[in-house]
Amino acid sequence: MKRIGGNFLFGILILLFGLALLINNLGIMDISIGSIISTWWPLFVIAGGLSLLLNHGSKGEVLSGIFILFLGVAFLLGNLEIWNINLSFVFKLFWPTMLILIGVSFLTGKRGSGKSNYAIMGGVERNKEAWTLDETGFVAFMGGIELNFKYAEIPEGETAIDLTAIMGGIEIRVPKDIDVECKGSVILGGLELLSRSTGGLIASTSSSQKGTGDSKKKLTFYCRAIMGGIEIKSID
Q1: Alpha-carbon distance 59 to 226, whole Å?
Q2: What span is annotated as the signal peptide, if there is one (predicted)?
Q3: pTM to 2 decimals?
Q4: How many Å apart are CA 148 and CA 209, to the nearest integer?
Q5: Cα–Cα distance between 169 and 167 in angstroms, integer?
Q6: Non-local CB neighbours of 136 within 8 Å, separated by 6+ positions
Q7: pLDDT score recorded for residue 221
Q8: How confident is the model at residue 169 (pLDDT cuts 50, 70, 90)?
Q9: Which of 27, 66, 135, 219 is the most exposed place for a label (fewest CB within 10 A)?
Q10: Is the pLDDT score of 11 beyond 60?
């Protein structure tokens, strides 16, 4: 089945609003654009939810799509005065649930066995000069981390590396000649792991790379993005 992109759904809505504006400006019909926007803006939220549901890559994206779709429909029904839903109760449940999920994500999953490096409202860069991979945990809290493993001294065998981005970003570059495996989860953020990407309220994905060389080295990344983003790309 062909994937239906979110751009397609949003394009249809923008096209319809444009046609309404054109008809109004030509005097063919007297359409209140302001009234249309104030009433029907939840359609964009609904389109976002449908896009996740139609193109989901994980169970997490399905849950995100359902939640966003529910919010869009609730706002639309309220604007149409068909059904007034008390959304304040929904949000009272939403944030505690997010905090619980964040706590669970920290308590579960594998970790690197080495020491950790933190970028707190600052930055860590290792992308121009040779460096030794003696730290297997990297945390970006309202900061940024850039690591280029092309210049890293990587031990033979498998090395597990834990990446956590909280309201921050982590950019990783890995050479194509070594094996790489990526596993990640995201809460209110985004992941781009080699050939796969995901994002939303709650989502998860995984990706891998078979090295082009004869290297016995392997990097395994365990990624966690919370209101932040992690990107892992393969380079020559």
Answers
A1: 17
A2: none
A3: 0.66
A4: 16
A5: 7
A6: 111, 112, 113, 114, 115, 116, 159, 160, 161, 162
A7: 94
A8: very high
A9: 27
A10: yes
Torsion of CA 151, 159, 205, 202, to 10 degrees: -100
If one counts every other C-beta atom within 10 angstroms of the C-beta of residue 166, the result is 19
Q: Which two tokens stand for residue 6?
A: 């979110």
pLDDT in tens, 97-138: 777 767 776 666 556 566 788 899 889 899 888 998 887 889
Task: Average the pLDDT over 145-164 and give the result.
Answer: 92
Q: How far apart are CA 230 and CA 217, in angstroms?
A: 22
Instruction: Inform me whether the pLDDT recorded for 47 exceeds 90.
Output: no
pLDDT in the model for residue 106? 67
Give me 76's structure tokens: 């639309």
Q: Output the DSSP codes for the chain.
A: -----HHHHHHHHHHHHHHHHHHHHTTSS---HHHHHHHHTHHHHHHHHHHHHHT--SHHHHHHHHHHHHHHHHHHHHHTTS----HHHHHHHHHHHHHHHHHHHHHSS---SSEEEEEESSEEEESSS-EE--EEEEEEESSEEEEEGGGEEPPSEEEEEEEEEESSEEEEEEETTSEEEEEEEEEEEEEEETTEEEEEEEEEEEEEE--SS---EEEEEEEEEESSEEEEEEE-
What's the CA gap between 135 and 137, in Å, rounded? Answer: 6
